[in-house]
Write a structure and sequence with these properties.
about 50% helix; alpha/beta; 2 domains
């Protein structure tokens, strides 16, 4: 699973243990780094655990803080979630936009979620660099647990896509290109193509073609399998 250990979900003054449990479950399900809580008044860990099957460790290891500043002290960037318009201008991103931004630059990041009744205050937003908003209809009623779950899911999806893209776009090594060229030369020799031709010139041509193709590992492996099958067929015919 791709790494999201650099993400901290921060619940600011959460009021419902059930929502904390749902948030913990989302954090565990999606491989997010950890949970921090700022002044969780009246927090009942047993009720939260009841809503967080297989995620008790997230609650047990949660970081309890007295202020937002303490909760984000080890982060390099702070994102705040809010549905209310603000007078100060922040960069505003959707969950998908934010997740792609984080995936492209994986630095320690804190994502703030406000209390269920009023959300984050202007003071809570003092250290935030950008705002996360959730696209809804004119009926905007997303509770804390849902907001954390949607955010964690978007983070996981973007991170997985980023890892898949990196894996697919990784170019093949020179060593593997040489192996592919050698196997291709073996097949050409078995087929009689090299008879009367300069092996050096053919080799140079194959090397240049392989380099210009900018193959990925997967593509090189597929070609290797094809050439291997051709070599086997030639050897079977001559035996």
């Amino acid at each position: 699973m791709a790494d999201l250990e650099h993400i901290t979900i921060v619940l600011v003054r959460p009021q419902q243990p059930g929502n904390i449990g749902v948030a913990a479950r989302a954090i565990a399900n999606h491989g997010i780094g950890r949970l921090a809580m700022v002044c969780p008044d009246g927090f009942d860990p047993e009720r939260a655990r009841w809503m967080a099957p297989k995620a008790h460790h997230i609650i047990d290891n949660a970081h309890y803080c007295r202020s937002v500043s303490e909760a984000v002290a080890n982060s390099e960037q702070v994102i705040a979630t809010t549905a209310r318009p603000r007078t100060q201008e922040w960069i505003v991103r959707s969950p998908e936009e934010l997740s792609q931004f984080i995936a492209s630059d994986p630095v320690p990041t804190a994502i703030l979620f406000g209390p269920e009744d009023n959300g984050l205050s202007n003071e809570d937003l003092a250290l935030a660099e950008s705002i996360l908003t959730f696209p809804t209809t004119h009926i905007s009623s997303l509770n804390l647990g849902q907001a954390v779950t949607a955010t964690c899911a978007a983070l996981r999806m973007a991170q997985t896509e980023e890892a898949d893209t990196h894996q697919q776009s990784r170019q093949v090594s020179v060593e593997k290109r040489e192996e592919l060229v050698d196997r291709t030369l073996e097949a050409l020799s078995e087929s009689g193509y090299l008879d009367g031709r300069s092996k050096r010139i053919v080799t140079n041509t194959l090397v240049r073609l392989a380099a210009r193709a900018e193959m990925t590992d997967e593509e090189a492996n597929n070609l290797m399998g094809m050439v291997k099958q051709v070599n086997w067929w030639f050897k079977e015919q001559s035996s």
